[in-house]
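To close the chapter, one final illustration. This time we ask the reader to focus less on the individual chains and more on the assembly as a whole: which components sit near each other, and how the overall shape emerges from the parts.
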Amino acid sequence: MWRVSQRPDIARLIISCPDQHGIVAAVSELIAELGGNIIALDQYSTGLEGGRFFQRTVFHLPGFAQRRNEIEQTVRERLAGPFAMEFKLTDAAAPKRVAIFASKTDHCLLDLLWRHRRGELPMEIPVVISNHPDLEEDVRRFGIDYVHVPVQKDNKSAAEAQHLEILRGRVDLVVLARYMQILSPEFLEEVAVPVINIHHSFLPAFIGAGPYQKAKDRGVKLIGATAHYVTEDLDEGPIIEQDVIRVSHADDVAQLTRYGADVERAVLSRAVKWHCEDRVIRDNNTTIVF
Amino acid sequence: MWRVSQRPDIARLIISCPDQHGIVAAVSELIAELGGNIIALDQYSTGLEGGRFFQRTVFHLPGFAQRRNEIEQTVRERLAGPFAMEFKLTDAAAPKRVAIFASKTDHCLLDLLWRHRRGELPMEIPVVISNHPDLEEDVRRFGIDYVHVPVQKDNKSAAEAQHLEILRGRVDLVVLARYMQILSPEFLEEVAVPVINIHHSFLPAFIGAGPYQKAKDRGVKLIGATAHYVTEDLDEGPIIEQDVIRVSHADDVAQLTRYGADVERAVLSRAVKWHCEDRVIRDNNTTIVF
Amino acid sequence: MWRVSQRPDIARLIISCPDQHGIVAAVSELIAELGGNIIALDQYSTGLEGGRFFQRTVFHLPGFAQRRNEIEQTVRERLAGPFAMEFKLTDAAAPKRVAIFASKTDHCLLDLLWRHRRGELPMEIPVVISNHPDLEEDVRRFGIDYVHVPVQKDNKSAAEAQHLEILRGRVDLVVLARYMQILSPEFLEEVAVPVINIHHSFLPAFIGAGPYQKAKDRGVKLIGATAHYVTEDLDEGPIIEQDVIRVSHADDVAQLTRYGADVERAVLSRAVKWHCEDRVIRDNNTTIVF
Amino acid sequence: MWRVSQRPDIARLIISCPDQHGIVAAVSELIAELGGNIIALDQYSTGLEGGRFFQRTVFHLPGFAQRRNEIEQTVRERLAGPFAMEFKLTDAAAPKRVAIFASKTDHCLLDLLWRHRRGELPMEIPVVISNHPDLEEDVRRFGIDYVHVPVQKDNKSAAEAQHLEILRGRVDLVVLARYMQILSPEFLEEVAVPVINIHHSFLPAFIGAGPYQKAKDRGVKLIGATAHYVTEDLDEGPIIEQDVIRVSHADDVAQLTRYGADVERAVLSRAVKWHCEDRVIRDNNTTIVF
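The assembled structure is written out below.
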């Protein structure tokens, strides 16, 4: 009943280009000409003079899956060329393939698996990878593969090689659901798909390890969590989503951690959902979320 | 510095019509053909089959103010006719003319006057009307006319006649900023512009008078406020905006009233701002807020 | 790491009585005399003249479990008598025994089971009872008994008799985690423990069935959920906790239901936690939450 | 109607001391013995072993104002000595005397003046001091003195000397309502009363100048404000209150500033109110807010 609409014949066109006159008209004319009907359209410009334009267009087009290559080619010729446009054309019925990395903590992982089972997240989960064996049973109960790849200080690159072997050609996105290892720049380059992390603070406050302890020490009255794309610079990648919860002087670090877990799982699930719906566009080190 | 952008040459086209193929394309083509450039576009459909389609398009078109009649005529012929469309074409540089009604309570009124002075609200305030003299000095300090029209049980229709005389041809919107009198159906029909009211509860909870007392009696843990268009059915009009604030068993009715005042002024100011930016469209007894 | 503190030797004394001078002093003197040390103390009065006074006192007292009967007797003689006081004395190390009722929807149930497994909720769950078989596997994997008691129109009292047989002497609280059957007044009287329900609206708005449809029809801008004690009057019992989430015109009923599920599970989990920590006191048809 | 209760005969006793057995009992016994009745009592301990204990007790005691010196002496002998306690005894009917510093921006200043006029804030405002003349008329219409003390780079200490002359013996608190000058350590020492500042970010994020620009550059999805006590270390003092508001990629810095202003004024007003009600206790570089 709740299943996210994955009707066939729904396409999404995500574009970005230097802002200029007539883009919306050109896109909508082309879609109409191709026989499509626009269902949703969001756009954003950083400024008409020298700014950049971003647009997400969702349209219904009978037989889209079959005509996809032809349509992609048409978009390339008629829009991407003339407007110096980058674009992505996706089929809303084709779920993203998402690998989840976890360690010992279960709240973010379970929330994703459970929402996936309910049909809230338009994705497939080919595998969960963990550096610990603890969560295996929890994951297998959802009918999902669990691979335990131990990571020690001296075998990190071997572990990452194993990760890459598991992932190669099988995933469109990697999600770090409280995975407590830092990914190397080499891994990020090799894996060649976006990686989303959940940081347990309201970034850029409390960068690095132990944010709840730092929050307690600083005496903040709200704690938060941040979902962001992973880049080489730890905790500095483009932010997708954030949220906070009110705390008091009486909450110790364990209680902050407990409250924080609720925020973390909510924020990460929203970020993953939006990414899988092609709603998130990177603009340098920030994101546009349509 | 903060002044809401009221650059010239910005137009807004608000449309609604039965949903059908090609509306977005037709609108954007026409705007491009007229020499306009789309800045923002929001749309919503209640369903392709038998549903209704709503769109708000903001576009830059040099010389819009001078060409307005011609453009309106073109929209009528090329869009409104073929698509069975209702539409409104407005000049973003032309502020709405807003009359505010108040009684003795100042928080909603002062918040509107102060935001107006800061340039946050794209509107003019030709007059404040009150059934009490109390707030006259506060209003005049903002350089705004204050008319005291006493309302007693037996002179209500005379008072409303006086209201209509003051308002006729001078306003595009009436805002009830905690005005403690009920407007008659005759007044609503005669005034012939939208009327926005702030109700001091999270409607549809606690309809009618004394909502904070009712909230205390029921023991709710959140109290709220609701801005809505006024219709003949008291507290039943289309809701524009709502918000809530957390309260506890320890808060008495006076404290609820105090907390509630903050929510009321925030909610009403947002609703008025959105209305004046042509973001709010009525759809039967609900609203679409773009 | 997260386990809720269930250290031994922590007692909670919950009292209510007509407000009068010297109650706080009398309670704290007695606790000191008994060898206890107050850790936390909350109190609330509805008014000194003719009002009612409520207090929750948490204190550390070595050997409390062994001395409990003696202490209870002392409180009865020294406090309850003189102050016309109702009181409850509980051992913080003794978890409440909680039966959960569910139907087919899993979100509230699973959230309670997860939090329970993480040690967030100071309770035991002797049994989950459902009128459907659907959630059996989900529950059993937590090592918790699942009893399927079908309820049809014509066997309702037989079903309730079966419920009572299962529950008798085994539970301190019943939680309705989206249990879609109405409990009879007879059941409520017989079960003789508090019953907490989660209603999927911001009560008192949208009482009864189908609140998300009603919310859509009324066009509200926030939806909510309410945890309350069950009384004979449906949806009218004392409210323990409420929360809301922002929605828009673009959300259909399925989406409201999805958003609402997150609010429901959060609100119910908080209410159950607070109840199990003896933080919630009924005061006629409202609650005091310390 | 809304006026904050300033009934006579209400006293507040704020204490802090090494945690140890029997403090609550000792305090409540003494108050009972003096003829007082406890109305509200909050306490917090950082830990029984080697921790620190804090308590705020509000009690009704007929003739408190007349007996104040005697009672203060009794508290000193019977509590402060034996428990190595720091304490403060205040008369709830005696409003705090608060000087407000402002620059050119009006939102925080006006919000305090409005709330003060409505009787929401238990304080007097002997003077508003500004380094600019702009807000003089706004302030004087509330019947409050406005002193313009220009501050240039080379006359800062002269200006601060003038500030001190104005303030000496006349104030219990200084509030910086978006005052855009840094106070010198010498001033802070000389003024010898607490100073509350509002910082326009969610500290510790975006320390220093231009936080909304920094927030835009970092692409955060929430912006916030922080009220804190001023210390020698800029933006590092104990946090009293914080709040946030959701923003999007589409909001430019001017819009963030506008949204932020609403959060700033709400947060500062709450912090000032709580301080004036003796609810805020400093504990090293954090605060306890009862």
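Chain C touches chain D through 19 residues (CB under 8 Å). The longest helix of chain C spans residues 253-276. With these observations in hand, you are ready for the problems at the end of the chapter.
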